[in-house]
Amino acid sequence: MEYEVMNNSLFAASAADLTIERIRALAARPDQVESLTLEFKREYSKSLVTTIAAMANTYGGMILVGINDKVEPGTERVVGVDAQDTIDKTASGCREKFDPPWEPTFIPVPFDDGSGRSVVVIRVDANVAPRPLLIDLKAPIRLSALWQRESLFDEQGLFRVRGMVAEG
Prior knowledge:
With 168 residues, the protein is of the alpha+beta class. It has helices spanning 4-7, 9-12, 20-28, 47-56, 83-97, and strands at 38-41, 61-65, 98-99, 105-110, 118-124, 134-135, 141-143, 146-148, 159-161, 164-166. It contains 5 helices and 10 strands. The strands form 4 sheets. A 4-stranded mixed β-sheet has the order 1-2-5-4. Strand 9 (159-161) and strand 10 (164-166) form a beta hairpin.
């Protein structure tokens, strides 16, 4: 089911219980692919902020930065990033782009090899995020493992998501 990460112990685990071994085990599963509630990012990119907003506007989820999203033979999937740099860039992007202002939870999970690299776990709790979370007056939503920008209001001023009118 597409919402499996919400029941995944990593989503609910305390920061102290998030270990690089658990993350590597998740990434190593051959059936583990991106979904509505799980995304892998090799590194920070500007699209990460839109992915956070899209998850916040739908079911929430978890983004693991420092993991290749494509599994290729002979390639290490868990590559790691500079955690502080990734968190700083992502938090800054959230502050600059989101209306209303909001930040997800960031949890750096360091490698155990002394390299200084980490996987940054970004938890997006849809029950905590203000909704709709807007970027440029549009509310990104998650459709499968993709996000799509949707116009927030139609001509009559009614909130719309993919042709359905929502009151509120």
